[in-house]
Amino acid sequence: MAKVAIGLSGGVDSSVAAYLLKEAGHEVIALFMINWHDTTGLKSAECSAEDDVLFAKMVASKLDIPLHVVDHSEEYRHRVVDYMFSEYEAGRTPNPDVLCNREVKFDVFMKKALEFDVDYVATGHYCQKQTIEKDGKEYHQLIAGADGNKDQSYFLCQLNQEQLSKAMFPIGHLMKPEVREIARRENLASAEKKDSQGICFVGKVDLPTFLQQKLKAKEGNVIEIPKDTKLSLRKEDTLEQMAQPFPFRPWHGKVAGQHQGAHFYTIGQRKGLNIGGRPEPLFVLHTDVERNIIYVGQGHDHPCLSRKALFISNEELHWVRPDLKMEDGEERRYEVRIRYRQPLEGATLHKTEGGLYIVFDERQRAVVPGQFAAWYENGELIGSGPITI
User: Does the annotation count 127 as an active-site position?
Assistant: First the structure.
């Protein structure tokens, strides 16, 4: 048996993960991470660190495992929150959960946990790991969780082989109701605790209020693009053309209202526009932070809200399986998702000298720069990268 450090968050998933490790005969220690203290923009106090650490202490006591509290708030602010601000300011929409796993949970936190002389670091993520041998070398596979509704492999799409070699995911083979039932059966304090929501370690926030800590409000025009806009304005003969969004210009529509800053909005957003009187709801089609303009259109099926392809630059490409890295000029078929819980979509990946083009079989709604695209094969996450365009 091994010595394992479990990241005990106070939630039901990590609690059951700790229980399963103990039941399997491992020597288990628990670490609770404090990553955020500021409550600016929080919609509720449900995710407060004080409540979470109390649950973690009760679970650790019940399981008779030592609990250590570590504070990584400075690293979290620098590596995750400051990056969020800079990305929104540039007109992109980052994914803080992916960043938190890459920069904090499986980097800063994992290194701290390994100082306790443990063999592995475990978390309550719904994903699985397998190890294979290829050409005399071991490779660790990141496999989707058994519960398709809770699979969290997408959030771990930036992990590398070294991180995976030390990782354990004790509940990845279980369904969420099974996890709840184990917690109830073992009388764990977190059995009925609600799942956390919102930004990783921050909680559910009013995003404009949260962002206004560093990004200033700036009034600008909301331009409505008619639904009958002709996409023939845009050719799709080459990979580059397929990956380009519609060439939005103010004269393509008319002023429909005002906003308080284009950097507070994201493609596909519906709420927060405060513009009514339309037969169909308005959605954000595009944001232009340089001109401080938001382009909107009626209906989730607006033609300017979807496109056939996206592009990821070479500098941002990440291969969870480095042995499967594509060479320039190579094409491969994979299944791809561009947001959490999105069904996997068939696509062809084209590797070029500048980066990677992903051409989908079907047009994709709300392709958002800054969000991560992740590609899979037979349930294994092969690689990922933040969308450039």
Answer: no
